[in-house]
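Same chain as my last thread, 175 residues:
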Amino acid sequence: MKRTDTRTSIRCAVAALLAAAILGPLIAAQDPPPPPGRPGPRGRAIAELGLTPDQVKALGEFRKARMNERQAFREEMGRLRGEMRGLIGDPNTNQARIDKIIDQRAKLRADREKGALRARAERNKIFTPEQREKINAFRSARPGRMGFSGPGRMARPWAYRYRPYPGRHRAWHRW
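reply #2:
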């Protein structure tokens, strides 16, 4: 064995030991998965609201029905979008056909919104008045999720002189 081969193998062994020494504690420091009996967010909500097994079953059926409606809506909208793309790309397109597809899409969206309002009223029938009060109190405590909706929306915080850590990241502050 040549001397360079020995050095290379020693370097590889040292690199492997360093990688294990660095990555080992990082992997061990990760949060362990929750135990199987521990409730998730939905389980906590069920516990806090005090839902009965019948209510839980009714909510499951309700969610499944809404999921099927959403899937049907997406498929139909996708079909109409694809048809519209094909018509727009064709120079000999009949304008009446494009107008008809636009009207179909608008009607589909309106029907979806009407269905959502009906579904909300249907969902509220599942809960008791006390449970509805708890739900409304919970929702009023969280009016909007920062960064996603509402007046606190910050899609690009750095564009609005937002500094998350005072004294850090001075490189991207140009004022």
